[in-house]
Amino acid sequence: WYQRRVRELLLTVQSLGVSSNIALDSSVTTLGILLEDLAFYLAPSHSDMILNKDFIKLIELDLFELVIKMLLTPHEKIPQLDIDIKNNMLHITTCADSCAALRDILVYCSSEGDLHEP
Question: Judging by beta carbons within 10 Å of its beta carbon (0-12, 13-18, 19+), is residue 67 exposed, middle or buried?
Fold first, then answer.
């Protein structure tokens, strides 16, 4: 049913930072991802689209930070995970049509989208 509502999606990121801390003698490993000025645009699918005319900004995110810490102790076989997510601003601007399209996209992604065998 999703194929009936084909949409063009565009994700823009102004700044992306990735950091990690892996040390041989340490039991803690850290991975950090920082995204700044992220925007998600949506447009109907057709070949001659112009960003500022045909795409509408649906979601705007100022700062997003994801930090994953993994702690492996000698007496445990499975490491402990600590996931920290921070966000300072999230704007969702939508009308009924784009809200339905956003719902369709989320359903599509949550059902593994293109990962199914044809």
Answer: middle
pLDDT in tens, the chain (118 residues): 344 455 677 889 999 999 998 877 788 889 999 999 999 888 766 656 565 567 788 889 999 999 999 988 778 788 889 999 999 998 988 888 878 888 887 887 777 666 655 5
pLDDT at position 35, please? Answer: 94
Long-range contacts of 52-61 (CB under 8 A, 24+ apart): 55/8, 55/10, 56/93, 56/98, 57/93, 58/92, 58/93, 58/94, 58/98, 58/102, 59/90, 59/91, 59/92, 59/93, 60/89, 60/90, 60/91, 60/93, 61/35, 61/37, 61/87, 61/89, 61/90, 61/91
The dihedral over CA atoms of 39, 44, 48, 51, expressed in degrees to the nearest 10, equals -20
